[in-house]
Amino acid sequence: MGCITKHYLNEFSILGVWKIEEDIKTLLGLVTLDNDDKKRYKKFTSTSRRLEFLSVRALLAELLGKDAHIVYNKNNKPFLKDGSRFISISHSHKLTAILCSTNEKVGIDLEYMRMDISAIAFKFLNRKEKISRDHEIRRYHLYIHWCAKEALYKICDKEGISIRKNITIEPFEVKESGEIKGQVHTKKINESFDLFYSRYDNYAIVWTKKNYERI
User: Fold this and answer.
1) Whole-number Cα distances in Å, 87 to 16, 116, 143, 159, 188
2) DSSP 59
3) Which of 19, 70, 205, 215 is the most buried (most CB within 10 A)?
4) CATH 3.90.470.20 residue ranges in the chain?
C-alpha cells in the first residue's frame, strides 16, 4: 500500500504513515541506500526488521525526497544527515510513522494494540493519571497513555527520564481522535506539552511538537 497519509501540520512540520504491504524487493526499488544504510541493513537477519528499515527509508523519500538520509547517534536516536529537520520515527507491526519539522522538536509513537496491557499498566502509569473503567475503551485509553509517554520521552531527548515518575498525562475523555495534555517534570525539565492522538484500524498513534528553544 505504501504511504497512507502525508499531512502538513503547518508550514514547518509534516507527518507521514506507511503501511507495509510490499516485499523486500519492491521496497528496495523505492529507496536509495547510502553506504551507512547498506551496512546497517546487512546486519538485520530477520525479514521483519529489514522491512521496517526499508519502509522508514521509503516513507522518508516520499516526504522529503530520495536525497534525505538518516544517521544515528550513540544512543541510536535518528537524525537527518544534512541536519535540515528534527525527526522522530516509530514503527509497530505493519505501520511506520515519521514526523519531521524544520524548527520544532518532535516526538511520535504508534503501537499495534495486540494485547490487553492492563497487567503492565503499573510500569508506566502514576497515581495522577486516570483510566476509564469501561471495558470497551479501557485498552485504547491505556495505549494512548503509553504512546503519549513514549512520544514525550523522544521529544525531550534526555537520558534518565522515568516514563512513570517524570511524565504525566492529564485526565481526558477518550474519543477516536483528539488533543491531550502532558507534563514532563525532572530536575532539568519542567514543561507542558500538547499531544494529538488518533486510531487507525487497531493502532494507537500519538504525536507532539514544540519549539526547541522552550525545551
Assistant:
1) 11, 30, 22, 18, 22
2) H
3) 205
4) 2-102
Give me the tens of pLDDT residue by residue for the chain, a chain 215 residues long.
Answer: 678 889 999 999 999 999 999 999 999 999 999 999 999 999 999 999 999 999 999 999 999 998 899 998 887 889 999 999 999 999 999 999 999 999 999 999 999 999 889 999 999 999 999 999 998 899 999 999 999 999 999 999 877 899 999 999 999 999 999 999 999 999 889 999 999 999 999 999 999 999 866 55
- Kind and range of the H or E element at 122? none
Residue with cell 510490499: 22
CA 11-179-95 angle, to 5 degrees, is 75
Nearest to 180, CA basis, from 192, 167, 195, 165: 195
* DSSP helix/strand/coil, 209: strand
103 three-state secondary structure: coil
Please name every residue paired with 177 in a beta bridge, in sequence order, or none if there are none: 198
91 CB-near residues (< 8 Å, 6+ apart): 52, 55, 56, 97, 110
Number of neighbours of residue 55 by Cβ within 10 angstroms: 25
Q: What angle do CA 73, 68, 100 make, to 5 degrees?
A: 70
Nearest to 103 by CA among 118, 83, 123, 89: 83
